[in-house]
Amino acid sequence: MSKLCHFAPIFMSAIYSSLELPYQISDSRIDSFLKLIGALRASSNESTAIGRTLSLNWQRVRQISPAGFAILACIQDTATEHGVRIHHSHVGALFRKIPSLNGSPSFASPSNYDYIASNALLRGSTTTLNFGFMDELENRFSEIFR
């Protein structure tokens, strides 16, 4: 029997094993994604367990902000750490090449999450600081920084 979970208003009647993603994946409602990550981390506790598979429904998603790409990578990474497989359904053609949607059930290099889009640059790193990232960001989006 599935337990209902209300992460936030953007997740419409979310069920632990299946979530409908919002229109825009961004940091505007970060609390919702933090609750999802918390539930993934608690996957070993039966009272809050998501289970071994989480289905994310992308039917409503139309935009992903630069922060949204990082949020998706964090969700995939947390799921991998806690042995939860993520199934992505109804993914639009625009979003199918996002590396975090093709996550591996085993641990992967953080660079597997690297992604370049017209409005975003995501780089996974094994160190806490990537000193070349700001240079790469400035080179890629120099017209914005002027």
Q: Could you characterize the architecture of this molecule?
A:
- The protein is of the alpha/beta class.
- Helices cover 27% and strands 16% of the residues.
- It is built from 4 helices and 7 strands.
- The protein has helices spanning 30-41, 66-81, 133-140, 142-145, and strands at residues 18-20, 24-25, 53-57, 63-64, 85-89, 115-117, 120-122.
- The strands form 3 sheets. It has a 3-stranded parallel β-sheet with strand order 1-3-5, covered by helices on one side.
- Strand 6 (115-117) and strand 7 form a beta hairpin.
- Helix 1 packs parallel to helix 2.
- The longest helix is centred in the middle third of the chain and has 16 residues, at 66-81.
- Mean pLDDT is 75; it is low at 1-16.
Task: Give descriptors for this structure.
146 residues, alpha/beta, three-stranded parallel sheet, 4 helices, 7 strands
Secondary structure elements and pairings:
Elements: E1 18-20, E2 24-25, H1 30-41, E3 53-57, E4 63-64, H2 66-81, E5 85-89, E6 115-117, E7 120-122, H3 133-140, H4 142-145
Parallel strand pairs: 1-3, 2-4, 3-5
Antiparallel strand pairs: 6-7
Helix pairs in contact: 1-2
